[in-house]
Specification:
Strand order of the largest sheet of chain A: 3-2-1-4-11-10-5-6-9-7-8
Oligomer: homodimer
Largest sheet of chain A: 11 strands, mixed
Structural class of chain A: alpha/beta
Shape of chain A: globular
Function (chains A, B): Catalyzes the reversible formation of acyl-phosphate (acyl-PO(4)) from acyl-[acyl-carrier-protein] (acyl-ACP). This enzyme utilizes acyl-ACP as fatty acyl donor, but not acyl-CoA.
Radius of gyration of chain A: 21 Å
CATH architecture of the largest domain in chain A: 3-Layer(aba) Sandwich
CATH superfamily of the largest domain in chain A: Isopropylmalate Dehydrogenase
Catalytic activity (chains A, B): a fatty acyl-[ACP] + phosphate = an acyl phosphate + holo-[ACP]
Subunit structure (chains A, B): Homodimer. Probably interacts with PlsY.
Family (chains A, B): Belongs to the PlsX family.
EC number (chains A, B): 2.3.1.274
Chain lengths: 345, 345
């Protein structure tokens, strides 16, 4: 099967100067993929010309005259810019012309337009951003990473159900363990929302481990961690900032003196592998779960390497049939858990 | 001046087996300090005997028959255990026999007993945990790190005022820059509390930078970052977890094969310095600000090295006259800002 992905070329801090070369690079490594480059054709063509050594035949350009700016209010993006690259890329998913859409654009706008264009799965009120946070022997799937600032206990339960469906689909685990992000392990910890979510999770058929703390993300204590979008975004961004600083610190130490530079040269094979492993660009791309179509959000500040990883994230999700599996699982859970959680609104 | 610090020897996951050797080690490096070891004398004496090569004359043992368990409900710790090591250590601060108290005990209990025993400074309703998060060219003072789960906009303003007083006292900066932790830089981001806190901060005489995100902690964008205790604790614990994992990853890469082990041996001087810089134990110890006395909280899981850093944190704070400066600054701010923030409750 050919994998079709619509790329919102105008999104992100750098627009086509990042998204187009990333798309071309991606195509070179993925011969069964076809990309639809959506945006202002003049700017896209300029970048295609600039990177003509990378030219591939597996793409098409789809015109969209408007651009959702990174600071556009959601209302403007949703109601006024009906020919934005973001909206057109999403409409290709809705029309079945693309299996997924990848965008580095304005998060709030992407969330709102995705919901408006694609609609949510039955029983899901608020989609959530999910991504894998790596640890030494695998990864922890974490959601929500910033789509929803305040979440009700029932929404946190929904995130757990979606995380369960995602991880069991990708990793083939029948009963992936789910943790609830909190500021202590004890059941009495946290605010009312988190405590009630804990009760709902304990009463569910999910494999609920209990409360986890920030450090547990990188210990791999559970397969999945659920949290509201504020806490999740803080954890994600803090991690990116720290990983970048520690990476810089390694190079600072190895370039401090002439002897340390010599050591760096000698240890280069190991340092290169290390650099690759800690490169946070490799973890770029969060899936917006709970919609009737697959949407991948890249960081706004992504460079071409990072944006290519976000496209790859979409490609892998399509290959794994995530959308279909998730829809099926949510539908099944929906019937079961709706009855179960009724007592708490 | 001799620095007197009361040590809650029974607190933490490991009690006297960690706190006593940490205290003895600390005394060897700080000849102007005297420590009061508070707890069950038999257990303390056993550890003193075990570490007799480290014996110093600059300590005394103060008996306390009870122990606040790490999972004791706050009510039990506060109302029932009146002879706990935590409470007795705090009473020594209250009585002026110690300049500060250091504890690795139950956070909720420490917070409650500290408030009860020492009382808050005028105008401060809720003390906050503050600590320095390191970056390449210094550190960012962050509060609250877990004392208060939900915070009102006015409490976030108070944290900013306390952070201001702390950083201007320690670093001699007249107008330290203050950031508000959020999930985007724009003023429209975040929940209602954060938005209102932003308004209060903008209207204040503080040097308010605006919203910052998790990655800004490690860029050193501002001198101070304020947030509620839930988000702060997530940022702190996530950082500890990631730093530990990346440290493990470095050793994993350098011990993977015989050639990489040889490289590690060659690069050892650099790796050792790096290991020292990224060792999160060096950042152990958060000050509980806003009380009429200095309290330092160590991680419950601290080992002797980490606990010694928490004692050092208290020692430095006393040397810098933090408590007096903070009390003075809060008093001054109190008069000014109470009038200013009245419209928003």
């Amino acid at each position: 099967m050919t994998i079709h992905i619509a790329i919102d070329c105008m999104g992100g801090d750098y627009g086509p100067s990042v998204t187009v070369p990333a798309a071309l690079h991606f195509l070179h490594a993925h011969l069964d993929a076809e990309l639809i480059l959506v945006g202002q054709t003049g700017l896209i063509q300029y970048q295609l010309e600039k990177h003509k050594t990378l030219r591939s035949k597996s793409f098409s350009v789809h015109a969209a005259s408007e651009v959702v700016a990174m600071d556009d209010p959601i209302e403007i993006a949703l109601r006024k810019k009906k020919d934005s690259s973001m909206r057109i890329a999403l409409s290709l998913v809705k029309a079945g012309q693309a299996h997924a859409c990848v965008s580095a654009g304005n998060t709030g706008a992407l969330m709102a337009i995705s919901r408006y264009m694609l609609k949510t799965l039955a029983g899901i009120e608020r989609p959530a951003f999910a991504a894998v946070m790596p640890h030494l022997s695998g990864g922890t799937t974490m959601l929500d990473l910033g789509a929803n600032i305040d979440c009700s206990p029932r929404e946190l339960l929904r995130f757990a159900e979606m995380g369960h469906a995602l991880v069991s689909a990708i990793e083939g685990k029948e009963k992936p363990a789910i943790g609830l992000l909190n500021i202590g392990e004890e059941m009495t910890k946290g605010n009312e929302t988190v405590k009630q979510a804990g009760e709902l999770l304990r009463a569910s058929t999910l494999n609920f481990y209990g409360n986890v703390e920030g450090n547990d993300i990188y210990k791999g204590v559970t397969d999945i961690i659920v949290c509201d979008g504020f806490a999740g975004n803080v954890a994600l961004k803090t991690s990116e900032g720290l990983a970048k600083m520690l990476g810089d610190m390694i190079w600072q130490e190895f370039s401090r003196t002439l002897p340390s530079k010599v050591m760096a040269a000698l240890a280069w094979p190991v340092l290169r592998r290390l650099k690759h492993r800690v490169d946070h660009r490799r973890y770029n791309g969060a899936a917006l779960l709970g919609l009737r179509g697959l949407v991948i959000k890249s960081h706004g500040s992504a460079d071409a390497c990072a944006f290519e990883w976000a496209i790859k994230r979409g490609y892998d999700a399509i290959k794994n049939g995530i959308q279909e599996r998730l829809a099926r699982a949510v539908e099944e859970n929906n019937g079961n858990s709706a009855a179960r959680v009724l007592p708490i609104s």
